[in-house]
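Structure tokens please, single chain.
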Amino acid sequence: MAEPGTLKPLKLRPFTSRELKPAGWIRRQLQIQAGGLSGNLDKVWPDIRDSCWIGGDGDNWERVPYWLDGFIPLAYLLDDEDLKARAKKYIDHIIAAQKADGWICPCADQERSGYDMWAFFLICKVLALYADCSGDERIEGILALALRCAAKHIETNTLHNWGACRWFECLIPIFWLYERSGGDWLLDFAGRLQIQGIDYFRLFEHYRDAVPERNWTYLTHVVNLAMCLKSGALTSRMDGSDPDAFAKLATETLFTFHGTATGHFTGDECLAGTSPVVGTELCGVVEAMYSYEQLLSIGANPLWGDYLERLAFNALPAALSPDMWTHQYDQMTNQVECSYLPEGKVVFGTNSGESHLFGLEPNFGCCTANFNQGWPKLVLSAFMAGEDGIVSTVLVPSELNCRVKNVPVRISLETEYPFRETLRYTIETPSPVSFVFALRIPGWAKKAEIDGVAAEGGNFFRIMREWKGKTEITVRLHVETRMRERPGGMFCLERGPLVYSVAPLERWVMHEFTRNGVERKFPYCDWELFALSPWNYAFTKEAVNAVLIQAPLSEIPFSPAAPPVSLKTLMTPIEWGFTGGVCEARPAGRILGEPVPVTLIPYGSTNLRVTEMPLKG
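Here you go.
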């Protein structure tokens, strides 16, 4: 256990929604999200609408905190008064219901000893986020009372189940409060959580889960593992250790034995190997993104920005319908149909045969509540404050208004990245002020130019100068199309941060019904998807010379209807088995004809897809 002492500062400190706003295509993504499921769950879904958290008789555990974790920054980034008022309604009720001793979760006093503390940790994290977004001055006192209660609670009720797996998530509100009020008791509480929680370093130091099993366990659960990636960085703030060491060990291990083409790892529900027809859970995607955001902030290693963007621009949008009214629980890298899988033919390790349908809550409702943190928190990581200036950390269109040495500074990033390779920064100050402006050059870029000056990929490019008036900076990233080898003799095609897929034409079949009192009704019904055009191809060696086709960004860039960029190349039709709604993991690949021209689109713009394919000729 780390001894109470000084908390190491963040190397990069995120700005809040009061200083940072989305622009361009990603603002439109947030607007689509607000108009879809995320922005309406409190109206249509009993687990949020009728939750015990607001005095109802519904869910009393993680679902309202999960939803608020994305809904709050969504509301404030869009500066939408209706969304903000609805968020405040939930926060006000949670605060009003807090017990005199600080207990803040909706359960009877006699149920506390068995209550899984994960939801307690999560709501504390949400309250800190709400304070950052809204400026609500009540939160500091509310959190102090709640965390003292939790510290007392675990003296006689040790962590178990999800609370033991996710103990480090509570370090986030603990550190938030410590930086504002101090108090060695907070760091002592953090150390005691570490003692009672799972030691993930030992899990990966002596790794035993290289071979997937159809067996549900906490230690192979994909969401626990996505969350734990940041645990070493968080504890490094207390003990001074290397903030990146654990995450590098964990990601290298997970990518080796369970990696996907999109830079994630499988888990349906638990680790599932490298087959392109097993799934990975949407909760795991957004929690890995959040882990990379924390890692980027704590240690300032640009590597985590690369990992973050790869997930954000590929796996996240692929698991959402283009209008964001429905989502998948599990997405498949090679997903040529989304239909009810027959009993005995379910490819998922421990999930149901409807887990890859697009719907309201396919398989289980955690992702319904949790997926909406993905886009808003990505925006909140666009710019961060460094030790000697401001850093552009995630390359999404955005605008920052802050103060440096008490001088107002406005920085905007205009870009269509990742669909284009040009970034245009504008820095404006009403009076001269000196500081470093640094920008992250992605690791995939062989080279880049900043106003004509060469820069190296995988690093921060630093500009130290006195800024006055209006300054414009143009960045050009050099992008190459490349083939990446995957296990089992398969390959995938990449360009910049985007993975490309063959996307067959689709037929959507709607299902409206009620199950366990929960109504599925258009537009939040369930859907099966069926392919209407060929998908059974192999790459040829000409794939790396694919012709780039650019189109204007549409209102919905992540949609197969109008992708803003695509690659056209010759591909070979092959024999590829298909049974019970799923294609073979690795086809025998008998050639069926001469190569034909095929257009591939970004993985994130697909609903049905083939991404990993063999190489023929």
